[in-house]
Design a protein that fits this description.
Length: 382
């Protein structure tokens, strides 16, 4: 298939582009490289050294003979997007190209507006581009489990069958997003669902859990292909932060009581889920929602797992608790459905001590790159 990976220079997008290319698909990457500029803005970095996109795709071609075309530009620029769609004529459009950090969206008014405009307008442009130029193209959009929040009922995959005053209907599952970033994803979902209904676009919304892991078979082929690893309090996940804190001898800093529970999946499962969605497209006019995660953990459970893995390699680790900078339930019911991707063939890679240990080894190897003040929270929701 001809597939565009938008945001293909990022943590999920880069390994996805390589994986799909290795599988024989014809891949092009669209990326504004804004994530690299945000590192400069925040005074942060990837724990792992990452090469320029041009070096990455050149090395991939040297190693495999497979070409990945690149286009540098912003999805908010419709003329740019139109040019790419006309030239590539994609059968699938994988959309990672959004500002993806909840803390970044909560820094201040400016960052909240940037996040919502960038994410919502970019996606609207993609919807119009597909309608006008490649109407049969399947949109594979990365959503987030954070759209749902933490309701006191089981979370279904996108929709809920309800009975109200004697009448029944199947309606979108209620959303309780926890940041302006998560709200932007909810707006995306509504816009995509509307476009599918009125224009007959086919779309799959992948409500992804927290992604962990670092390498895939493809990114491990050469240091130039290495994936980025975020560890700071703005872009780093709790698991990443704990692993890097263990590597540098810092307490593992749990926000509040640590009872916050979320869905998780390995980066190797992320790339496979995209392949499954691409090879099993939604029907014309269908807005399909898959919950893309394989396991559920609380923050405290993650801290305890990292502590155990670190002690196994001789690191002494303490767990401490910080006042939670977010406004969220710290102890809550959490049960979410995730059967659709499993039914289509996903075979999960689970979070084990060995997996944590392999990331920890990378963290130890590169601990001289850690900017230590970045591992503590700097953004508060209030």
């Amino acid at each position: 298939m001809k597939i565009i990976v938008a945001g293909g220079d990022g943590f999920c997008g880069w390994p996805t582009a390589l994986y799909l290319s290795q599988k024989g698909h014809d891949i092009s990457i669209v990326d504004s490289k804004v994530r690299r500029h945000i590192d400069e803005e925040l005074g942060s970095n990837s724990l792992t050294p990452i090469a320029a996109l041009e070096e990455r795709v050149a090395k991939w071609k040297d190693l495999t003979g497979k070409e990945i075309r690149t286009y540098e530009g912003d999805l908010q620029d419709f003329d740019f997007l139109k040019m790419v769609l006309e030239k590539e004529q994609p059968e699938a459009f994988v959309h990672y190209a959004e500002q993806r950090s909840a803390p970044y969206s909560m820094i201040d008014r400016k960052h909240a507006i940037y996040t919502q405009v960038n994410n919502v307008v970019g996606t609207l442009n993609v919807l119009y581009g597909i309608k006008d130029i490649v109407p049969n193209c399947h949109l594979i959009k990365l959503g987030t489990m954070g759209e749902y929040g933490t309701p006191n009922i089981p979370i279904e995959e996108g929709y809920l069958d309800i009975e109200h005053k004697g009448r029944k209907d199947r309606l979108p599952f209620p959303k309780q997003p926890g940041s302006y970033y998560h709200l932007s994803k909810v707006h995306d979902s509504h816009n995509i669902m509307f476009a599918c209904r009125i224009w007959g676009i086919r779309a799959t919304d992948l409500n992804q859990g927290v992604v962990y892991g670092l390498s895939t078979n493809e990114t491990s082929l050469d240091p130039i292909l290495a994936n980025r690893l975020d560890y700071d309090s703005v872009f780093g996940t709790a698991l990443n932060r704990f692993i890097i804190q263990a590597a540098i001898g810092h307490d593992l800093t749990v926000y509040g009581k640590g009872g916050q529970t979320r869905g998780f999946l390995n980066i190797e499962d992320t790339v496979r889920c995209i392949e499954i969605a691409a090879e099993n497209p939604a029907d014309v006019g269908e807005f399909r929602v898959f919950n893309q995660f394989t396991e559920e953990f609380s923050v405290m459970e993650l801290a305890q797992m990292v502590k155990k893995a670190a002690e196994k390699v001789g690191l002494s680790v303490n767990i401490s608790h910080l006042e939670n900078p977010r406004v969220e339930k710290e102890e809550h019911f959490y049960e979410a459905a995730n059967t659709s991707l499993l039914d289509l063939g996903l075979k999960p890679h689970l979070l084990t001590e060995d997996v944590i240990g392999s990331i920890l080894k990378t963290a130890i190897d590169h601990k001289d790159r850690v900017i230590k003040e970045n591992v503590l929270p700097t953004v508060t929701w209030k």
